[in-house]
Amino acid sequence: MVTARLSLRQPAQVDAAAILGILSNPSVAQHNPSDLVTELEDVEELVGRWLGHWERHGFGNCCVFEEKTRRLVGNCGLRWMTIRGDRVLNLLYRFHPSTWGRGYATEAAAAVLHWAQESLPAELVVARIRPTNLASQRVATTIGLRRDPAFDDQGEDGMDWAFTNRS
């Protein structure tokens, strides 16, 4: 998947060190402290889980690269999960702080949401966001998701607000 400035592709184990450079940054995990990863082995295991989802479902979390520099700057994608008994597509995105404010998360998330609406039109897409994570909420609402308290759920680090594509 390619956007104006980014390319998104299935992760590979060779990406683990660059992913560690993002997920080990305390600013990236500020709203989800349990997601902080500091060991390469843990990232390799995480990439293995991402690849397992790809193998089972044909889609999943993507590595996001700047088209111009080919630098890995984040991850964005979808994964199946269950919220309150309903199977949904969880939209997730994480980017290195050096890219914040450039619209990369919005650009990547919009592309992934568009893919979901074209490929899996009957499925509910949910972005789970902490009430204090205003930047992530802006990404969700900018791409057309709406606050949907019916899917609010307790996350590992606290309450997650739901933003969905439900009309």
UniProtKB/TrEMBL annotation:
SUPFAM superfamilies: Acyl-CoA N-acyltransferases (Nat) (SSF55729). It comes from the Bacteria. It holds the Pfam family Acetyltransf_3. Residues 6-166 form the N-acetyltransferase domain. PANTHER family: GNAT FAMILY, PUTATIVE (AFU_ORTHOLOGUE AFUA_3G00765)-RELATED-RELATED, N-ACETYLTRANSFERASE DOMAIN-CONTAINING PROTEIN. This is GNAT family N-acetyltransferase. It comes from Terrabacter terrae. The lineage of its organism: Bacteria, Bacillati, Actinomycetota, Actinomycetes, Micrococcales.
